[in-house]
């Protein structure tokens, strides 16, 4: 069996006859023609057997869906206009009035906002569980729980949960378990084959906006599943919500996918290098990066990703308490190569200061650090230049 990186490059697609080139064509359509009324009446938009309407798929979107399903080890994929749209698609497809969804306490903020907003309006409740404590999830699973979200690692506070333990609990209780796999990107571990046992999460959501796009210029999300019935359930909601993606954006992601594994490894190496260097600095109280032994959940990262030895290019630092918010803001402002901006996975390094007090519900698990947190997304610049940039900004403190 070839590796995902090879499959991303050598993936079957059907070229127009007698034309073969590295990239498949960009096929744009709302309308798709049928050859006769019988074909129109027999149309089937639920499978890839044929084309019916642009919203239900084009040759271009089908290729990306197939590649992403292969990347993550699933069998089906749906595309959504953003990572967040992919998250809301899953929650809206799988939850109804009276149900409960459980979210990790370090969950991607907008996922929690969706639960507190639309889901609450629809009579769907949510509770948070301690991402680092499977027994807390076990205690909170109830007959009303229909969906559990997992995030590995948390994208701001970087705790790495025991994904296998959380997924097993869901499996035992018959609860659908959805992983936000943006950090692992299908490269650091196989979400449908945890522990190499051929089982795993039920749904893997990926913000393609990050590493698959790699350019900081595309918004897109995917929902990969292995169970055809679960795929169909989500696909029906996808259709009813009318979610579509632009094929130029699809082509941009297809063009970036072959280099994703190389980029991911480069982001990872530079991030480790800078995280280790910062952990030696007296201005920093704690570096949060799952490869560091003193980072929360490090042993879970080792268990899940030890075989690939991969981590993303993302880490956070907690400044020593003696630096107030204004000083840390000034540190961020003093950075020149690291730009202030959200998202990650592109070539340009990014920095964001966060107020964890506003983000975390301390009733689930107390946040153990006092100082201000700053999250870095490490780009593809020369790591020496990034270190020099951090150094001059630290000196400005
Ligand atoms: C960025 C991100 C998303 C959302 O992706 P968008 O395309 O920006 O909507 C979801 N989950 C995680 C972990 C992310 O980092």
TrEMBL record:
Give the SUPFAM superfamilies listed for this entry.
PLP-dependent transferases
Reaction(s) catalyzed by this protein?
L,L-cystathionine + H2O = L-homocysteine + pyruvate + NH4(+)
Database matches in InterPro entries: Cys/Met-Metab_PyrdxlP-dep_enz (IPR000277), Cys_b_lyase_bac (IPR006233), PyrdxlP-dep_Trfase (IPR015424), PyrdxlP-dep_Trfase_major (IPR015421), PyrdxlP-dep_Trfase_small (IPR015422)
Q: Which GO terms describe its molecular function?
A: transferase activity
Q: Does the keyword Transferase apply?
A: yes
The alphabetical list of record keywords is: Lyase, Pyridoxal phosphate, Transferase
Please name the Pfam families in this protein's record.
Answer: Cys_Met_Meta_PP (PF01053)
Its domain of life reads: Bacteria
- Gene3D superfamilies for this protein: Aspartate Aminotransferase, domain 1, Type I PLP-dependent aspartate aminotransferase-like (Major domain)
Cofactors needed by this protein, per the record, are: pyridoxal 5'-phosphate
PANTHER family registered for this protein in UniProt:
CYSTATHIONINE BETA-LYASE-RELATED
Q: Which family does it belong to?
A: Belongs to the trans-sulfuration enzymes family.
The molecule here is called PLP-dependent transferase
Question: Where does this protein come from, organism-wise?
Answer: Variovorax dokdonensis
């Amino acid at each position: 069996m070839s590796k995902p990186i090879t499959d991303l490059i050598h993936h079957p697609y059907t070229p127009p006859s007698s034309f073969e080139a590295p990239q498949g064509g960009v096929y744009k359509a709302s309308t798709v023609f049928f050859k006769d009324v019988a074909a129109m009446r027999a149309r089937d938009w639920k499978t890839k057997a044929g084309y019916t309407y642009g919203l239900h798929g084009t040759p271009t979107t089908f290729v990306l869906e197939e590649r992403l399903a292969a990347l993550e080890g699933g069998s089906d994929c749906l595309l959504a206009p953003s990572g967040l749209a992919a998250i809301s698609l899953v929650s809206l497809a799988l939850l109804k009035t009276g149900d409960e969804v459980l979210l990790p306490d370090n969950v991607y903020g907008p996922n929690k906002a969706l639960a507190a907003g639309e889901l609450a309006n629809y009579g769907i409740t949510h509770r948070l569980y301690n991402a680092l404590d499977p027994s807390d999830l076990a205690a909170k699973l109830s007959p009303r729980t229909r969906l559990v979200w997992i995030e590995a690692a948390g994208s701001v506070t970087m705790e790495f949960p025991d994904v296998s333990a959380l997924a097993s609990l869901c499996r035992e209780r018959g609860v659908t378990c959805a992983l936000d796999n943006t950090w692992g990107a299908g490269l650091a571990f196989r979400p449908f084959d945890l522990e190499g046992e051929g089982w795993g999460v039920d749904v893997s959501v990926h913000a393609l906006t990050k590493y698959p796009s790699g350019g900081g210029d595309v918004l897109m999300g995917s929902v990969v599943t292995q169970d055809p019935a679960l795929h169909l359930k989500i696909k029906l909601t996808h259709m009813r919500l009318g979610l579509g993606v632009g094929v130029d954006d699809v082509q941009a992601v297809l063009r970036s996918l072959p280099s994703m594994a190389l980029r991911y490894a480069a982001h990872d190496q530079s991030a480790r290098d800078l995280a280790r260097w910062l952990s030696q600095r007296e201005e920093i109280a704690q570096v949060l990066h799952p490869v560091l032994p003193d980072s929360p959940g490090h042993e879970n990262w080792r268990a899940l990703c030890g075989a690939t030895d991969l981590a993303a290019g993302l880490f956070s630092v907690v400044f020593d308490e003696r630096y107030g918010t204004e000083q840390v803001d000034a540190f961020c402002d003093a950075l020149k190569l690291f730009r202030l901006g959200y998202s990650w996975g592109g070539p340009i390094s990014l920095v964001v200061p966060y107020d964890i007090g506003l983000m975390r519900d301390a009733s689930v698990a107390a946040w153990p650090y006092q100082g201000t947190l700053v999250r870095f997304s490490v780009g593809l610049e020369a790591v020496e230049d990034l270190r020099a940039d951090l150094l001059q900004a630290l000196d400005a403190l």
